Amino acid sequence: MSAATPQAGLAELIRLRGIIVCVGSGGVGKTTTAAALGLEAARRGRRVLVLTIDPARRLANALGLQSFGNEVRRIELPDAAEGGELHACMLDTQATFDDLVHRLAPDDETRRAIFGNRIYRVVSDNFAGSQEYMATERLYDVHCSGEYDLIVLDTPPVKNALDFIEAPGRLARFVDRQIVKWFLTPYDEKRVFGRVLVGTSGVVFRLLGMIFGREFLDELSGFFQAFRELMDGFHDRHAAVTRLFADPGTAFLVVTAPNEPSVDVASFFHDELRARNLPLAGFVLNQVHRCHDGELSAPELLRERAAALAVDLPAHTAPSLLARLDVAHKRLRSVVHEERPFVDRVNAMASAGYFVVDVPLLDRPIRDMRGLRDLSARLFPDPPAAAP
Ligand SMILES: Nc1ncnc2c1ncn2[C@@H]1O[C@H](COP(=O)(O)OP(=O)(O)OP(=O)(O)O)[C@@H](O)[C@H]1O
Ligand SMILES: [Mg+2]
Known about the structure:
- Helices cover 56% and strands 12% of the residues.
- It contains 18 helices and eight strands.
- Strand 6, helix 15 and strand 7 form a beta-alpha-beta unit.
């Protein structure tokens, strides 16, 4: 990133990119950062969609998101530059999966066969339960709609970066598994189990039939028959989402806090994104404690001023408050000291040309538009660059 300051690097992202994916471990501020980036990009004149995952309830309300359902809400921004629009949407994983299957099914008969099948519910619970996978599917759909200049994708917390990076291939990998492939192999006759009821596998299936009942096996057979029709669609989408991730119009932003578990996750993302040539742009080092470098003594520095202000108070009040202030300052210094190695680790990762924007821990949680504007002011302290 060639921008002069880290903040300018981030400003360039929201000005130029079409997709920004905020990744990182749990609780580091991915959702609030995604919302603040979206807010600022819209204020600067872009049509933005923030696609969030499980936002805290109050923040969701601030974004006009009361319920799930993939419904896109527009948030009025009185100070948006011309053309700027902020939209937000909360990921509904089950609806996303049903939509996908609905679209990929070639005809109504296949659709009815799949949606009416009990096995489908089990399989779809499994996939829809995977927020990272569904997030990438939804991202691809809204990208294809062409309705937005910028989509900011919030992501679920991951312990393992690969859960997210490899998410787009989940269905394709599922249908590629040997056992599933075997079920999905085309047959001349309609009944999948016609073939397997002879030979060794026939024994296995008769046994399964005894355990689960013939009806269950028929349902399983019906599911795989219908699902087979969707296989090419899954592969095509996998290839398309993978291309979209690697596109130079996309940027990955790693959000982290200055503590060991989240910097470990950030470091894993850094390594994996680089290894896969995915467009990592930089880091937001969030919730950083800040403190004056030198050791200060509150009683020494403030004694006279406190005494002057405490004229009407009992004699011990000022010294006892100063002593407490001194303890609080020392605690803050030690927290800053403990965070230092993690701040250094993030800066070392960034030495390969990525930016790090650090953001202090604000004095209250970010739950409304005011909080988002506070955060946005920290992320973007400079006014937008004039158009060339
Ligand atoms: N710079 C900050 N200052 C103060 N509070 C912050 C800051 N950044 C985030 N928070 C607060 O930290 C909490 C977690 O933030 P957020 O929900 O954005 O994290 P997340 O990474 O999306 O979490 P999850 O992984 O659970 O989805 C929220 O209460 C948010 O208001
Ligand atoms: Mg979140």
